[in-house]
Amino acid sequence: MNKSKWLLTPVLVWLGLFLIVPMLIVVAMSFMQRDTLGNVVFSFSWEGYKTFWDSLYIGIYWDTIVLSVSTALICLIVSYPLAYYIAGSSPRIQKWGLILITIPFWINFLIRTYAWVLLLRTQGVVNNILMHWGWIDEPLQMLYTKGAVLLGMVYNFIPFMVLPLYVAIEQIDRRLLDAASDLGASRWKAFWHITLPQSKAGIITGSVLVFVSTAGMFVVTDILGGSKSSMISNIIQSQFLGARNWPFGSALSVIFVLTSLVLIVLFNQVMKSRSDRVKEGKR
Amino acid sequence: MNKKGHPLLSIHSILLMIFIYVPIVLVMVYSFNNTRLAGDWQGFTFDWYISLLQDRNVLDALMNSLIVAVVSTVLATIIGTIAALSMRDLGKRLKAPMNGLLYMPIIIPDIIMGISLLVLFSQLHIPLGKMTIMIAHITFSVSYVYVMVSARFAGMGRQLEEASQDLGATYWETFRYVTLPQITPGIISGALIAFTLSLDDFMVSFFVAGPSSTTLPIYIFGQVKRGISPEINALCTLLILVSISLILLSQYFMNRGRGQKKRNTLPF
């Protein structure tokens, strides 16, 4: 059995070298500065973090959080009924529902985002239909707006929300619901006191997944938002590939990851205290 | 759950599914539309597919994508399978942190993985190109292969391997004739997922590709930013079909010889 322990070496070396070390370098680089030529100078500096406090970047940071939280919230609201429906259906519908909701996972998000350009642009499908029916006389400007970005994000991440929710709802013991209805609880009451708190894990997983993925997605803002709206990931991207201010880009990355972690912990706490309250209320 | 779903519930579900699929179907339909302006339907044509196949840039990008996908799939599959194999015998104390490490590439946001690899390569003065894309793809694919092969191990007992060793087979003979055949479906489906992920990846590749090694998704991104073109609809349609076929194939292998019970084996 000892033989298999050294078999871990390849994966340890690989992930150490190409996952852990690079991230440590980014953290280190966030505390450095750059010289006039744009090269990174190896001397300690808070410059990257100081720049972040500029009102421009704080504004973008705040926009990113608002957009990511809205995306997660809207995804949760529209996905929950679908997950609930699939979980409560016959095995055949369950199977097909799951297949249909998983397929978009394997379609490149670039393509899924681009599809909305076809729909939203001035000569796009939506405008054509609205004009054809005579609802509007002039095409609406839908592309390159904040609404388009939000729509693109929600669209991309609905499957990320449905699957964890489905898994959580499907695992709920049906006898609890039977008991609730035997004891005279209305369907809504049973849902509020049993289904919702019991699917907490799915709500947390889905929301965190959507939040983190949204915040890191600069492509949707690029394609559907034009140059008007940007997010922290757009700034990180341009600091690394355009402006070549790597220490600042690294500092933003560190802030991004830390924010995600803090929000994950916070969210966990909020959900926990809510379900505790529900438990107490039941008694 | 409640047996009788509320009618509103099913209406909502159907509308949401339509919302999800209309844009995807639209791209596919428009790839056959006989107009460059792509406003209304102007009749059916294969022209865009034909001009796609004559486009030097597309073919170069396709070639790059395929080379990267093949090499990174092979290496990720080997490393991931070995990891799954050795994790079985690990004590509880080591197992938890190792599992954490192996799941990290799935959890870390793509943009962070992309920029950190870019920083590493530049510090080591490794020129960006196909090689750096491969390294990046192996790094995120390893975890998915690990998940798929481990899932296979989880559903299989140890009795056959123990019997084999009781009967005098060496460690390697047992591996070769008993363990490997049993986990082969898991390895194949892991490899297919690694291949799909590599073919589809944009975010990480975008940072480590360098100017001379454009992959298909990077090419699509460049074109999409410039505006609509029917060739892109055709290219997207092809990529959609290839990805979905590969994943269905992976599901088929994962479920083969395993009974019908476990259907949801996707790593999410």
From TrEMBL, chain A:
GO terms for cellular component: plasma membrane. PROSITE patterns: ABC_TM1. The chain crosses the membrane at residues 12-32, 60-86, 98-119, 148-169, 201-226, 246-267. Residues 61-267 form the ABC transmembrane type-1 domain. The keyword rRNA-binding does not apply. It is found in: Cell membrane. CDD domains: TM_PBP2. Keywords: Cell membrane, Membrane, Transmembrane, Transmembrane helix, Transport. GO terms for biological process: transmembrane transport. InterPro entries: MetI-like, MetI-like_sf. It comes from the Bacteria. It is a multi-pass membrane protein. Belongs to the binding-protein-dependent transport system permease family. CysTW subfamily. This is ABC transporter permease.
From TrEMBL, chain B:
Its main location: membrane. It comes from Paenibacillus crassostreae. Keywords: Cell membrane, Membrane, Transmembrane, Transmembrane helix, Transport. Belongs to the binding-protein-dependent transport system permease family. CysTW subfamily. The chain crosses the membrane at residues 12-32, 66-88, 100-121, 133-154, 175-196, 234-254. This is Spermidine/putrescine ABC transporter permease. It is found in: Cell membrane. The keyword Transmembrane helix applies. Signal peptide: none annotated. It is a multi-pass membrane protein. GO terms for cellular component: plasma membrane.
